[in-house]
Amino acid sequence: MQDVAEQPSAIRWYYEGLGQNVFRAVSCRSCGKLTFPPTGCCEHCGSWEVEGVELSGEATLLYATHNITPACHPRFETIAPYVYGHLRLREGPIVQAIILGVEARPESLRALFERGPVPVKAETLTMEDLPVIAFRLAG
Question: Locate the ChsH2 rubredoxin-like zinc ribbon domain: which residues (predicted)?
Fold first, then answer.
């Protein structure tokens, strides 16, 4: 584990990790819960006693839908339309992210829904201005 307080910025530390395909969060020394993406304090109890941890990148896709065009932010225009979803990281937190390996079409999303929760694996999308975490269907 790494002391996030030693870093110039928890967000910079997170994005530098993404650039290396490393997925980071902070673990609270007071309550033991994870905050993802990392911040300077625990999102659960407010403690500043946090330390950096690396995540496995493994998750379960709980729900997926698609965006509409135009994308919500200019950085995503080149990949729109895309699928995004709610995921439970293996380490516990629930997050939202882009889902890769699924077409943004109703029939593809229906087939995915009928499969039920499915395993996914994190990867980094290199966008024009910064790296972004995404998850790809496993297997």
Answer: 16-47
